[in-house]
Amino acid sequence: MKVLVTVKRAINPETKVKLVGDKLDLSGAEYVLNYFDEYAVEEAIRLRDGGKADEVIVVSVGSDEAQKELRTALAVGADRAILVKVDDDDELDTLGVAKILAAIVEKEQPGLVLMGKLSVDSENNQVGQMLGALTGMPQGTFAHSLALDGDWAVVGREVDGGTADVRIKLPAIVTADLRLNEPRYANLPGIMKAKKKQLDVIDPDDLDIELEAKVTTLGYERPPERKAGVTVPDVDSLIAKLRNEAKVI
Asked: Considering the entire predicted model, what is its pTM?
C-alpha cells in the first residue's frame, strides 16, 4: 500500500512579519516544513516500518524553494517526492491546492492520504476536507491516534468534548493533530541519502488542471488599538458601562 503525505513550505510562526501599507513584507521570513505535516510524515514512516505500508510518497504544491522541505521529509525516511510547481501564489487558494492533490491521488492511487490538520501560517484547516469532497474518500480529521486493520482505519479524533474514535474504510484521508506521535529528526546519513532519492517536478498543466483562485486576499491592516481601561467605583457603575458603552448586557 502506498501512503501519500502532503507537506507545505510554511512561514516559521516565530518570524516577525512586517506590514508595509496593506501588504506583508516577507523578505526576511524564514520557511520551515509545516509543523503538523511533520506528524503526518512520521506516522507514514511508522506504518511502512511496521509492515502496514510499502511506500511513503511526499507531495508539495509551490515554488522550486519547496524542494527544501521535500528533501527534509526524504531525509527522515520518505521514499520519494513530488513537487507540483506553482510559482505564482496568487493562482493558489485552498480549493486550487485540493484540486491538484486530487489529481495526484488519482495518479498515484494511494491506500492512505496523511495530512497535517492545518498549516501554521494560514491556519485555514480546509484542504483535507476539500480533498475528501473531491475524491469521495472518507476522512478522519484531527487524529491523535491511527490504527490500520485490514481494509479499515480506526482514527482517534480530538473533539470539543475530548476524544472520539471513528472507523473508516480505506482508501481514506487522515489529518494529523499534535498528539499523534513524536516526529524524528533527520540524521546525517538520512540527509545524504535524501540527495539521491527521487524528486519529480511536474506542472499543473500536466495534470489537466486550470488554476483560478476563487478566494483572493485584498490586503492586511492592523487591528484597532485598544483603549485604556478605566477604574469604576462600584458594581453598579460597572454594570452601567457594560450595558451602555460595551453593549454586552
From this structure: 0.88
